[in-house]
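We give the chain.
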Amino acid sequence: MADRYGTIENLNRAWWSSFWSHSYSDWDEVDPPSPLGESTVHESSPDIPVTTNLMGFYEGLNPWELVPELDVVSWDSYPGWHGTGPRTVGKGEWDPEGRDWRLAANIAFVHDLNRSLKAKPFLLMESTPSTTNWQAVSKLKRPGMHALSSIQAVAHGSDSVQYFQWRKSRGSFEKFHGAVVDHVGHERTRVFQEVRALGEQLAGLGDLAGTLFEPEAAVLYDWENLWALEDAAGPRNDGLNNYREDCLSHYYQLWRRAVATDVVDYRGDFGRYKLLIAPMLYMIREDTAKRIEAFVRGGGTFVCTYWSGIVDQTDLCYLGGFPGPLRKLVGIWAEEIDALYPAERRSLTMSEGNPLGMTGTYTLRHFWERLHLEGAETLARFDADLFKGSPALTRNLVGKGRAYYIASRNEESFLDAFYGAVIEEVGLRSVWPEPLPEGISATRRVGAKYSYTLVMNFKQVEQELTLPASLQKATFGTE
């Protein structure tokens, strides 16, 4: 602690401990983290690779802090297929529209995150061929979904498909958790036969092991930013800050267009990409802002949104105007933010002749900000009420690149039109040369001699694609 802050005065300032009279006068007053944990694995067995089971969006652990100690990234994937909506992942709430493809995009985000952690293939450490026993609704996978969800992991960078568990336990908490071998003890079960069939399919995909990706886009998803947003009192205290939902909503527009995408945090190598998306970047370090500016000046395109650049890494508000260290880059001053009631809506209208070619009026919800231009150009304005006429979407040209600022949480049709235009403007490559039907995704893994394109159908109906002559067909879908 003393090595990090130098003096007790610096710690008090960084933690703003004078609030509620919590100032420290000596280092002995600061409770250190627990010393418990394993720190000798590499010392005792240096030739054995080290991994641990990461758990997707688990909020209690920042995987980026753990990754330097790991040789291989692995994670446990247990989606609630067959009716869990895009905003109810893990909550067991039924989606009457059965939009498994929206859940598939969310899971793809986590696969891409795990691949991005070390910029190489990961391992699907745990999955189930049938069901869990601990979800709010532990639903059986319908025929074909076991293979589809497993192949999805491979399609996004996994070099394995593994299970918890091989044989169901006779007792204890997870005795009803899915397994390859059921309590009946033989292979004449539907689940066992599906596992056998998948094994035969995976045997034909062995050449994919070790192959990589060529992403040109990245979404910045920062655990420390998530924690800071959750601890912020205001502008919303009703659970609708939804940082994760925002990141997933922006990512979905790239996923559905088969644009290879990494998921990075503030330490990412932004120069690797053409497009960097950072929704609700509430907490941002000044050095991160400088690297984002260098990325844009070098020709990159940066997209950020309302409620960005508000606090530094110690959760102290930036003085001198928001979005703090991003203000000059995006070319606007965000004077104030307004929270709308859950059912309340406002709208924005695209400016005629804007460089993205977008037209029409779009609905917004939850958040909107009053902006003032400081070098940026207006691409859309709010239509009515408190912020009538204020810029709703701006673009600032900096060096060889550009920075977009979205001042409100908008309906999906806005993000669809916006990213359709931005992807074309940036010139991002898509894995598939034509627009994909709803529910179908495609990825590409690149090896030394060949590239491999995997196409997946997450709708429970048959869909047809015209296969480009340059690709060989290998598809997996639900019955």
Remarks:
- The radius of gyration is 24 Å.
